[in-house]
Amino acid sequence: MILAILNRQRTKKIDARRLRRIVQELLTELSLESAELGINLVGEREMTLLNETFLRHGGSTDVITFNHGPLADCHPSAETRLHGELFVCVDEAVIQAKRFRSTWQTEIVRYIVHGVLHLLGYDDRKAAARRRMKRAENRWLRRLAAKNSFAQLSRTVKIRA
Fold first, then answer.
1. 155 within some domain
2. Residue 159 falls within a domain, yes or no?
3. Residue 154 within any structural domain of the chain
4. pLDDT category, 98, cuts 50, 70, 90?
């Protein structure tokens, strides 16, 4: 399993090691044979540029997924391989957390789960598929939250006395 997390934003301090453990747990529980995943934590400006350049949509968005491998069939099996890259907008996580009465940390994990599901072949363009994907997203988020404190993704600077 290859997992790279790059923090390219300055909105929030994030404990990348803790986030790595959460994502590794997700990938392990999905029973993936192999995974190569890059996660880029970006700000609104970079996400807007990506969204407009690659998806031809105006403005920022929460997560953009680039699949660099073959699509799975929405039902991970022992042979499932994952190869892709996610761009997660931390600024959007802060905004959406207020809107949905959540935390920005939970939103970041939600966006990663959402992106991984896309890499596994889930689609959210049609209503029925979107509902199926949302159910899977919520199920995985609950499973991860039961074992992890997402609030601890906030990295604090320790001051020595």
1. no
2. no
3. no
4. very high
